[in-house]
Design goal:
With 384 residues, this protein is α+β, with helices and mostly antiparallel strands. The chain is 31% helix and 20% strand. The chain contains nine helices and 17 strands. The strands form six sheets. The protein has a five-stranded antiparallel β-sheet with strand order 8-7-9-15-10. Strands 1-2-6-3 form a four-stranded antiparallel β-sheet, covered by helices on one side. The longest helix has 24 residues, at 339-362.
């Protein structure tokens, strides 16, 4: 079973992860992982930390001469800002005169302090920080390299930012993705990109922040990944959980999403057709590539809504957990908008879950065996 655990704090020495279940013989490139890490750090509206960090990955086990061994793969992304936090984040006892007692609205500070019984919310905010997503992007990049071996691609782009929406022409997904990659806000539309940048500039002047919606699309998937037989095996549920696990994500849609509740059945369900060339296919994809908890052969389409960053330069009111006195929330270095970055994280978490169900379906100890099993299933589908 493909799985991973991550560890590390925002201002600690490093972020780490151990991935278990990658079959042997997979060509792994740290250059591709570093590329995704760099993509995560980009985007118009990011804050000061991006001037400090320049993330790169180090692989400590599970890979030899550029190929996976089948044993656990350990990854490490160092925090360059650690140099400024050695005393405050020291593993051994050290003087700490910077206890955090003022809870920031919209963060994990207060509920985390109550849950873990601590009066220093630094213990909470360090791990709950979105900085943790750097290692998840590294893990997702490994998963994407596995999926690429089977012609499976994961794309993302921003569709709405700060209330500014975008309309895309009916272009091939590769072209939309290329346009998104060239946009500072990861939006394929040039006119919408301009309007979104202006929106960010206005929010920055006002000391405010912005959220929005990004879309993740997965192509090349065969029918039958996921399952209908148990609630926790349904792929749409698995992917929704993964996206909701990203900091600041408050809503997820599959296909038409919430619009299915506003439309009659005749406008929702995708009719099925058959031809000798295409086999079974659908002319629409309102289901977002998933029916009954399983892929149906169409592209998987997901959208996630990100709330505005809760740390504002126009402070919100809160309460000190020790004195119980009101105050205006302090600032822990913040972005105006991190939506473009969130779309990259979305790619990563979706890629990992797709790789997981892929390996569950075609489970093997080596990539060569995995390809043999996959070819056998493709033959089965063609004969159906």
């Amino acid at each position: 079973m493909l799985r991973y655990l991550s560890a590390g704090e925002s201002h600690g020495q490093a972020l780490t992860a151990i991935i278990d279940g990658i079959p042997s013989g997979l060509k792994l490139s740290t250059i591709l992982i570093d590329k995704d890490l760099k993509r995560r750090q980009g985007g118009y509206g990011r804050g000061g930390r991006q001037l400090i960090e320049s993330d790169t990955v180090e692989i400590y086990s599970g890979v030899r001469h550029g190929k996976s061994l089948g044993s656990p793969i350990s990854l490490k992304v160092k925090n360059k800002d650690w140099e400024n936090w050695k005393s405050i984040m020291s593993v051994t006892p050290a003087k700490n005169d910077k206890i955090v007692t003022k809870a920031r609205p919209g963060h994990a500070d207060l509920p985390g302090a109550m849950k873990f019984d601590t009066s220093d919310m630094r213990d909470i905010l360090e791990r709950s920080s979105a900085r943790e997503t750097a290692i998840r992007v590294a893990v997702g990049s490994v998963a994407k390299q596995l999926l690429t071996e089977f012609g499976i691609s994961v794309y993302s782009w921003v569709t709405v930012l700060g209330g500014v929406g975008s309309k895309f022409k009916n272009l091939p997904l590769e072209e939309l993705f290329a346009s998104a990659e060239a946009s500072p806000v990861r939006c394929p539309s040039k006119s919408a990109t301009k309007a979104m940048k202006q929106k960010i500039d206005l929010a920055k002047k006002a000391g405010d922040s912005l959220g929005g919606i990004f879309e993740v699309v997965v192509t090349g998937l065969p029918a039958g990944l996921g399952s209908h037989v148990q609630w926790d095996l349904k792929l749409d549920g698995i992917l929704a959980r993964a996206l909701m696990s990203i900091q600041a994500i408050k809503g997820v849609e599959v296909g038409m999403g919430f619009d299915v509740g506003r439309s009659p059945g005749s406008k929702v369900h995708d009719e099925i057709f058959y031809s000798s060339k295409k086999h079974f296919y659908r002319s629409t994809n309102n289901a977002g590539g998933i029916e009954g908890g399983m892929t149906n052969g169409e592209p998987v389409i997901l959208r996630a809504a990100m709330k505005p960053i809760p740390t504002l330069y126009k402070p919100l009111r809160s309460v000190d957990i020790i004195s119980k006195k009101p105050f205006e929330a302090s600032i822990e270095r913040s972005d105006v908008c991190a939506l473009p970055s969130a779309s990259i994280i979305g790619e990563a978490v979706v890629a990992f879950e797709i790789a997981k169900v892929f390996l569950e379906k075609f489970g093997s100890d080596s990539v060569r065996e995995l390809k043999r099993n996959f070819r056998g299933y493709q033959t089965q589908l063609k004969s159906f």
